[in-house]
Write a structure and sequence with these properties.
Elements (H helix, E strand, L loop, with lengths): L1 H4 L2 H21 L8 E12 L2 E12 L8 E6 L24 E6 L5 H10 L4 E5 L20 E5 L1 H12 L4 E11 L1 H52 L1 E4 L26 E4 L5 E3 H11 L13
Parallel strand pairs: 3-4, 4-5, 5-6
Antiparallel strand pairs: 1-2, 1-7, 2-6, 3-7, 8-9, 9-10
Helix pairs in contact: 2-5
The chain binds zinc ion (ZN) (2 copies).
Length: 303
Amino acid sequence: MNLLRITPSTNSSISSRLWRLSIFLLLSLPDSKGRAIWTAHLNITFQVGDRIISQLGDSGVFGNHSPLERVSGAVVLPERWNQNACNPLTNFSRPEQADSWLALIERGGCTFTQKINVAAEKGANGVIIYNYPGTGNKVFPMSHRGTENIVAVMISNLKGMELLRLIEKGVYVTIVIEVGRMQMPWLSHYVMSLFTILAATIAYLFLCCAWRPRAHNSSMGRQRQIKRDVKKAIGQLQLRVLKEGDKELDPNENNCVVCFDIYKPRDVVRILTCKHFFHKACIDPWLLAHRTCPMCKYDILKT
Ligand SMILES: [Zn+2]
Ligand SMILES: [Zn+2]
C-alpha cells in the first residue's frame, strides 16, 4: 500500500504543485487568443424545375470583425474565371430581380479584408467566403479588420462548391444568413483542463484524508490483537515453584538471564516451549514486549 508510505511533506508538495498549476491556468485565461465564435445559419433556397428547395443548416461561422446581423439576398459570383475577388476591378453578375445580394467568394489570393472590400464597394449586402479546396467541411472565424460594416461569413469548401455549381448552371439561389450559437472552444478547453486538475486535487486530498485514519486504525487494531495473543500465549506457558533439591537451583548451571540472579527455593519460574525457564516476574514483561525467548529467540506465538 504505497499511499501509506507517502509522507506529509510529499503530500503537501504534490497538492501545492497541483494548486499552482490550476492557478497558472486561471491566470493564463485572459492571455488566450480565443474569442467567442458565432455560428451562422444559412437558409438556402433555390428552384430546380418546379420544385423550390430549401436547406437550413449550421453551415458557417461569422468573421471576427463581422457585425452579428441577419442578412439576406441572392447569391452572386465574381465575373469570369477569377473567383477570389482580389482584383479591385472584379465585377459581380448581379441578377436584375435581386434587391439585395451576397457575394460568394473563394478563399485565397489576398487577404479577407481585400476581397470583402471589393464586394462591399460593388454594393454587396454580405460576403460569403468558402474555404480552400481539400478542406472538406472545415470552417474557421476569419480576421478582416477594417470591414466592420458588412456581414462576412465563412462556409466550407464543400458547401461553397455546391452553391457555385448551382449558380454556374444558372440557378437563382438566395440565402438568409442568421446568427446562430456562440461557441467558446478555448474556454471549454481551459475549463476542462482546470476542472480536471481541480477534480484530481480534490480526489487526491480526499483519498489521503480518508485513507490515513483508516490505515492508522487498522495498524493499531493489528497491534492490539497481537498483544492479546501474546498475553494468552504467556498464560498457557507452564509455571513451577522451585523447591529444595531441584536441579534448577544449581547456581553453576542456571541463573535467570533477565535479572542475572540465581534461583532460590520458592521462586516461581515460567517454562517456555523451548524449555528455557526464567523468573515469572522477569520473563512475563519481557515476553509482552518481545514475544521471544531471551536465550534462543523462540517465538511464543509459533506454538
Ligand atoms: Zn529473574
Ligand atoms: Zn529458549
